[in-house]
Write a structure and sequence with these properties.
The complex is a heterodimer.
Chain A: E1 2-7, H1 23-39, E2 44-47, H2 60-70, E3 75-78, E4 81-82, H3 88-101, E5 108-111, H4 118-121, H5 129-143, E6 149-151, E7 159-162, E8 176-180, H6 184-193, E9 196-199, H7 206-222, E10 233-235, E11 239-241, H8 245-257, H9 268-274, E12 278-280, H10 282-296, E13 301-304, H11 313-338, H12 349-355, H13 375-378
Parallel strand pairs in A: 1-2, 1-13, 2-3, 4-5, 5-8, 8-9, 9-10, 10-13, 11-12
Antiparallel strand pairs in A: 6-7
Helix pairs in contact in A: 1-2, 1-11, 2-3, 3-5, 6-7, 10-11
Chain B: E1 3-10, H1 18-36, E2 40-47, H2 52-61, H3 66-76, E3 80-88, E4 91-92, H4 94-101, E5 112-118, H5 127-138, E6 142-143, E7 148-150, H6 152-156, H7 163-181, H8 198-204
Parallel strand pairs in B: 1-2, 1-3, 3-5, 5-6, 5-7
Antiparallel strand pairs in B: 3-4
Helix pairs in contact in B: 1-7, 2-4
The chains are: A alpha/beta, B alpha/beta.
Chain lengths: 379, 212
């Protein structure tokens, strides 16, 4: 099982000090969090993509490429990549490049975005959100698997004899998760391709997650990728920890009460009961997280949100220490002991290469204009 | 003999509440009318006052807390709805509107609704026609022709034989007609149900008219 953190990269006032970080500070803090995640033994760092204040991560592959250069082992992912408003050709190119630079330490999570106005900024219409996600991903899927693509669709200009470069590392595209809160169509999409499904599982009741994962598993089996319990499931989660649970509640409450999204609404106690949010001791986080398995089955990836609502970097790094030292080692052991042998681990580049029968260089060499031959053949 | 459910939504704020009193009388009259026609009726009363905080939380977080979700399911899964609000500033009160604002789109389509209201003077009575009825029309519910307004004098007139009693009986009969005309509902719609499959979605290649 993989464990990690995901961040939306919000610039939010610390309600306890009134101080708001600069964009520069927040961007650097995201990098520090990623480096710390590797240091404390987590597996995954995933960054969101947003194109409006108060969010900073508009250019995910720039940030992930920088982190790739400064880490050895950490898997770099997204939460989420906007499959609706980005050009699938550019996603294919950017993430294949990142895949090469990181030596295969990359996967992606597709999402539709959470802000209506983003669509027209990129020439799209939110009312076509689902159809855009379907068409764009289908093209992206082909661009990574077919060297030369002829394509015509509704939402971008047609492609003739197009080769997306670089080709995926070892001829194996990055693994893809599809993220959704409550759109059954996206669970269906993930199931159709045999891709992973990631349930947001923060800020929403667990019933949403349970229903969506259940649907995804059922359809995964329907499309013949394996049994329902072999489908690849990831979950979010939101935690705040101190050794003493009362300290955690006391310290987190002002951040909770003023948080974007749910602040000034339900009480911390209500929200803890109604959603997967856990504020307490490391042991409470362990117990609650193990409980997720009871309503989604054995799953492959757990990402925690630990850095939003204006929490200072120092506090976030302390959260990562607790995750790395006390929580994740126990979760790893417990989940592994519970997992039946036929339920797979989350795919990695190495496992995908092995499944493909070994890696192969998939470079597409340019054709020589004069001789009509590829450079390889003229030598 | 069929089993029918009636949801009774009252947005009265005081306790006891004349709005709730009107709602109960409308519910009782409709139940009696349906029983007279051989239907077994189950009443589900939703006193919005009890869900006021939950309704606001739903607006802010995008999902109903458990207790509110059960109330919403009771309303959207009912065969008929009796909806009664006090009139504030020439319209429904904010709690009434907020409750119907957090329902999923489409959840009241073709649902029979009887509307009622209370107010400080009879001069507020047309708020039912220019505010409450259009809201349900927008939701594509079927609002029965008789809307029942109760002013203070209607209560002092005596509830057994006054004009109010007659309007309640007429409205209840109209709601019973509409309920009886439809098969029993199968409960609230399931928002997680898959209504298409992938090849259909892909083949359609993007239908701009589908608002998700």
């Amino acid at each position: 099982m993989q464990f990690g953190v995901f961040t939306v990269g919000d610039v939010t006032v610390d309600p306890t000090t009134g101080r708001e970080p600069t964009e520069h500070e927040r961007i650097k803090a995201m990098v520090t969090i990623a480096l710390k995640a590797e240091e404390v033994g987590l597996d995954v760092f995933a960054a969101g993509e947003h194109h409006n204040p108060p969010f900073v991560p508009s250019s995910p592959t720039t940030m992930l490429g920088h982190i790739a250069a400064r880490t050895e082992r950490l898997l770099l992912s997204t939460a989420t990549t906007l499959i609706t408003t980005n050009d699938p050709v550019k996603i294919a190119e950017d993430y294949a490049m990142l895949q090469h630079l990181s030596d295969g330490r990359v996967d992606l999570m597709m999402g539709r975005g959470n802000t209506g106005p983003v669509y027209p900024w990129f020439g799209k219409d939110i009312r076509a959100g689902i159809p855009l996600a379907i068409e764009n991903y289908d093209l992206l899927h082909r661009l990574w698997r077919e060297d030369v693509v002829d394509w015509k669709g509704k939402y971008r200009t047609p492609l003739q004899s197009f080769t997306s470069t670089p080709r995926p590392l070892d001829g194996v595209p990055p693994f893809v998760w599809h993220g959704s809160i409550r759109s059954p169509e996206i669970a269906e999409q993930a199931a159709y391709y045999g891709d992973g499904f990631f349930a947001n599982h923060i800020f929403w009741p667990r019933e949403h997650t349970q229903r969506m994962v259940g649907l995804y598993r059922e359809r995964y089996a329907h499309y013949g990728h394996g049994t329902a319990d072999q489908a690849i499931v990831g979950l979010g989660g939101q935690v705040f920890m101190r050794r003493n649970s009362q300290d955690a509640v006391r310290e987190f409450r002002p951040y909770f009460d003023n948080a974007p999204v749910y602040g000034h609404g339900p009480s911390l106690e209500d929200f803890t009961r109604e959603t997967p949010l856990t504020v307490g001791s490391p042991q409470q986080v362990i117990d609650r997280t193990l409980g997720f398995r009871e309503y989604v089955g054995d799953y492959q990836r757990q990402l925690f949100l630990v850095d939003h609502a204006g929490l200072p970097l120092k506090t976030v790094l302390e959260q990562l220490d607790l995750l790395g030292e006390e929580v994740v080692p126990v979760l790893r052991k417990e989940f592994e002991a519970l997992r039946p042998a036929h339920v797979p681990q989350a795919p990695t580049h190495a496992s995908l290469v092995a499944a493909a029968g070994g890696g192969k260089d998939s470079t597409v060499h340019a054709v020589d204009d004069v001789t009509g031959k590829a450079p390889e053949a003229t030598r | 003999m069929t089993h029918r459910t009636l949801a009774v939504v009252s947005a009265g704020l005081s306790q006891p509440s004349s709005t709730r009193l009107l709602a109960d009388q409308l519910a009782g009259a409709t139940r009696d009318e349906l029983a007279r026609r051989g239907h077994e009726v189950e009443l589900r009363v939703v006193d919005l006052r009890e869900y006021a905080h939950d309704v606001v939380n739903n607006m802010l977080t995008g999902f109903p807390p458990t207790a509110l979700r059960e109330a919403i399911d009771a309303v959207t899964g009912a065969d008929g709805i009796i909806a009664v609000t006090p009139i504030f500033n020439a319209s429904y009160n904010g709690l009434f509107k907020s409750f119907f604002d957090v329902l999923d789109a489409g959840s009241l389509v073709d649902r029979p609704v009887l509307i009622g209201a209370t107010g400080g003077t009879a001069r507020h009575s047309l708020a039912l026609e220019h505010a409450v009825r259009p809201m349900f029309s927008y939701l594509r519910a079927v609002v029965v022709p008789t809307a029942v307004f109760a002013a203070p004098e209607d209560w002092s007139d005596g509830t057994t034989d006054g004009a109010l009693r007659g309007r309640i009986r007429r409205a209840a009969g109209e709601l019973a007609d509409q309920v009886e005309r439809r098969p029993p509902t199968s409960g609230p719609a399931d928002p997680f149900a898959l209504t298409t499959d992938f090849l259909q979605m892909l083949g359609r290649g993007g239908d701009d008219t589908t608002v998700s």
